[in-house]
Structures are given as structure tokens and as C-alpha cells.
């Protein structure tokens, strides 16, 4: 294909590919679940084995130094400190904990975008909160000037924004929004489940949560919740320091939201995966992932009548495409997998009912994807 851009940092792609099991086909589905490295898989297995050898809680205590290092590094990626971060079971578990423990008066309003993730909206309304829709453009991106007016004239109790959507690879201007929220004295919560690992998430928010298995390529069943101390002070844990004779022995504030029993091996794996992300260089990772997004969009727009939703240069590796009239998205995903060995996700309208007019197909390559993989998808799609 002449004229299409080539990919930067081929060394990252080569190293990423060499570091993990050989894929059974063409894996273009990291927004669903990335492929873990041999080192991560090994670390998880070793911790599980260690539990069997010396006891689960003894093994956990032995891993505490590594886990604390992980809290520090993960928190650092979102602009916070080790004391501010709790490991959780998933991003979904984090948002449930956040809004069940944050004592907000019923009827409090939460500014959200039209494309807010289904589960987040359900959690907000379940907590008795009232979502109010912030102004966005046709791509679903926050309109900052209009948001500034809302925050000045009719501020919601808090703002909740998903930095990159599950249904659309558009990046929200969260840093600018954090500035506006701070000025208005409105707490800002960010869902970085699809953002962390592919865009900068050190954005100045009050609470940030995310997941392990997507762009960080850690194990499934692990997530995190990070709280600025001032935000943490507004939450009440189910069990807090007052229950303990020693007042909780100075346990860091976020730790009250960490589950007592958990898949510790998975947390160990996430810490190793974050280490690999840092070693690769987050800036270089971002550059290659955005280039992969662009290369995907260049190849797929118009193919077989499918239409790319994201702007060509949107700096993410998530591309969604709308089907031509009469083509079923689920059936296409099945055909790509079964007949061409290509793994992608059919995204149903329910993920963002106020923004999607119908299902889309999501393509999300990680660093190891090649232009040949994308060409193969383009050819298969047009069949
Ligand atoms: C995947 C996803 C979640 C949920 O993450 P889990 O770790 O599976 O709970 C939340 N928000 C967005 C935007 C996501 O894409």
C-alpha cells in the first residue's frame, strides 16, 4: 500500500513480540485484553507456587516490598503517591468502591460526557447520584469553553470523565478540564481503564481508577483506585482505623479500600507489567501506539463500505468502524476470527447508548502489531 505512514520504534515492536508467547493468530484486541509477557506470566505463577509452599499470607508479606513499589509507580503514572493507591479487582470494582464509600447527598449531580461508559453510569445512578451531561462536540469530545461556563454558572457536585472510551478511541482534554474543575472547586474523577498505558494520565484529577489487563498488559482481575488525600478524606471505609486498638497502625489512607483477600499473584504480575511499560519508555510507547492507530485508520476507512469513526490522527491505538448497511458487526467479528484468525471486538450500542447509533467493530493493536497484520485485516474485512 503506497503512501501510508510507517511505524516508529520498530525495536519496541520486536521486543514486545519476543517477550510473550507466540499469538495463535492476529491479535488486535488490547482494548479488551492484552497479551501478557512471559515475565509477567512467570511472576504470577511463581507467586502462586510460593503461596503453596509457605502459606498465602506469608507469601503476601514477602511480596509486600514489591507490591508497595508497584503502588508507588502506578500512583506516579497518575500523578499521586504510593499512600494514595489501593489495588482492587478491576476498574469496575474501583468505581463501585469509590461511589459506595463517598458520602454524597442523594440527588447530588455528576457532570459526565454523552459517551460515558455504561457501567460507570449505572454505578452513579445506583448511588443515588444524578448524571448531568456536559457539552461535547460531534466526536464526543468535551467542549472546554462550554464546560467552563457550566462549571462557573451551574457547577455539578463533581465531574466524572472517562479519558479514553471503550467504544471510541477519542482522548478527552482531561488536563484542561482538571484545571477548570480545580478553579471551580469541583472534584474530578477520571476513569483511565482505556487510557493508562497509551496516553499520559498524570492529569491533576482528585480520584483516578483503572485496570491491569488492557494497555498495561498485566493479568486480568486486577485494578486500582488512586485518591488524592483530600478526596480520600471524603470517603468512609467499611472498616476503618477506629476499629483497631492501635488506630490502624498508620496504614496509608488508600489502603482501607484495598480488599483484604485478593489475587495477590495478579497484583504481583501487574507490578511486573508496569515495570516493563516504564522500561519501554511511556513516551515511545505512546508514539508507536498512536502511529498504529493512524495506520489502522488509513487502511480501514472505506474498506468494504466500513467507515472509521475517529479522526485519523487521534493519539490512541483504538479504532472503531461503522458497518455498511446490512452488515452485522457480531457476525463480522466471528468471521474475522474463525476464517482469518483476527481477534477484534464487536462493541454493542449499550456501551454508550447516548453516543452510539449502532454497534461498531473495535480494532486495538498493541506494540507488536505490524503493518502486515493491519493489511491482512483490511483485506479480510473487504471480503
Ligand atoms: C474495560 C473498561 C472498564 C472496566 O474495566 P474492568 O477492569 O474490566 O472492570 C471501565 N471503563 C472503561 C472505559 C473500560 O474500557
Return Rg in Å: 21 Å
Give the overall shape.
Answer: globular
| SSE-based structural type | alpha/beta
**H/E topology pattern:** HEHHEHEHEHEHEEEHHHEEHEEEH
Percent helix range: 25-40%
Q: How many helical stretches?
A: 12
E-strand count: 13
Q: Which ligands occur here? A: pyridoxal-5'-phosphate
Measure the end-to-end span: 17 Å
What do the pLDDT scores average to?
Answer: 96
Largest β sheet strand count, sense and barrel closure: 7 strands, mixed
Strand content: 5-15%
- State the strand order across the main sheet: 2-8-7-6-5-3-4
Low-pLDDT ranges? none
Give a quick rundown of the structure:
This protein is 40% helix and 13% strand. The chain has 383 residues and is α/β, with parallel strands linked by helices.
Topology of this protein?
Layout: H1 10-18, E1 26-27, H2 38-54, H3 56-77, E2 85-88, H4 91-101, E3 109-112, H5 118-126, E4 130-133, H6 144-153, E5 158-162, H7 174-184, E6 188-191, E7 207-211, E8 223-227, H8 229-232, H9 264-280, H10 282-300, E9 307-308, E10 319-322, H11 329-340, E11 342-343, E12 345-347, E13 360-363, H12 371-382
Parallel strand pairs: 1-11, 3-4, 3-5, 5-6, 6-7
Antiparallel strand pairs: 2-8, 7-8, 9-10, 10-13, 12-13
The protein binds pyridoxal-5'-phosphate (PLP).
Amino acid at each position: 500500500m503506497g503512501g501510508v505512514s510507517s511505524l516508529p520504534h520498530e525495536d519496541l515492536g520486536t521486543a514486545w513480540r519476543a517477550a510473550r508467547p507466540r499469538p495463535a493468530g492476529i491479535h488486535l484486541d488490547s482494548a479488551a485484553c492484552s497479551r501478557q509477557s512471559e515475565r509477567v506470566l512467570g511472576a504470577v505463577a511463581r507467586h502462586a507456587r510460593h503461596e503453596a509452599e509457605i502459606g498465602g499470607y506469608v507469601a503476601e508479606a514477602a511480596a509486600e516490598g514489591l507490591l508497595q513499589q508497584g503502588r508507588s509507580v502506578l500512583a506516579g503514572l497518575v500523578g499521586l503517591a504510593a499512600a494514595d493507591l489501593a489495588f482492587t479487582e478491576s476498574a469496575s470494582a474501583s468505581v463501585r468502591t469509590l461511589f459506595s464509600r463517598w458520602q454524597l447527598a442523594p440527588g447530588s449531580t455528576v457532570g459526565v460526557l454523552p459517551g460515558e461508559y455504561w457501567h460507570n453510569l449505572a454505578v452513579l445512578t445506583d448511588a443515588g447520584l444524578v448524571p448531568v451531561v456536559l457539552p461535547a462536540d460531534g466526536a464526543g469530545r468535551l467542549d472546554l469553553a462550554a464546560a467552563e461556563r457550566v462549571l462557573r454558572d451551574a457547577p455539578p457536585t463533581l465531574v466524572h470523565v472517562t479519558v479514553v472510551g471503550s467504544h471510541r478511541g477519542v482522548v478527552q482534554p482531561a488536563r484542561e478540564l482538571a484545571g477548570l474543575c480545580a478553579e471551580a472547586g469541583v472534584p474530578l474523577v477520571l476513569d483511565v481503564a482505556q487510557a493508562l498505558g497509551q496516553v499520559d494520565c498524570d492529569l491533576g484529577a482528585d480520584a483516578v481508577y483503572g485496570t491491569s489487563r488492557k494497555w498495561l498488559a498485566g493479568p486480568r482481575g486486577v485494578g486500582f483506585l488512586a485518591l488524592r488525600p483530600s478526596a480520600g478524606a471524603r470517603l468512609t471505609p467499611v472498616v476503618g482505623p477506629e476499629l483497631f486498638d492501635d488506630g490502624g497502625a498508620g496504614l496509608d489512607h488508600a489502603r482501607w479500600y484495598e480488599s483484604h483477600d485478593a489475587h495477590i499473584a495478579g497484583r504481583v504480575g501487574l507490578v511486573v507489567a508496569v515495570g516493563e511499560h516504564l522500561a519501554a519508555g511511556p513516551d515511545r510507547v505512546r508514539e508507536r501506539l498512536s502511529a498504529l492507530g493512524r495506520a489502522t485508520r488509513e487502511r480501514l476507512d472505506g474498506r468494504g463500505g466500513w467507515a472509521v469513526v475517529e479522526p485519523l490522527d487521534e493519539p490512541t491505538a483504538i479504532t472503531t468502524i461503522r458497518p455498511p448497511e446490512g452488515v452485522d458487526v457480531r457476525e463480522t467479528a466471528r468471521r474475522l476470527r474463525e476464517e482469518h484468525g483476527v481477534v477484534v471486538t464487536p462493541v454493542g450500542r449499550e456501551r454508550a447508548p447516548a453516543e452510539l447509533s449502532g454497534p461498531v467493530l473495535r480494532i486495538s493493536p498493541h506494540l507488536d502489531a505490524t503493518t502486515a497484520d493491519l493489511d491482512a485485516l483490511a483485506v479480510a474485512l473487504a471480503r
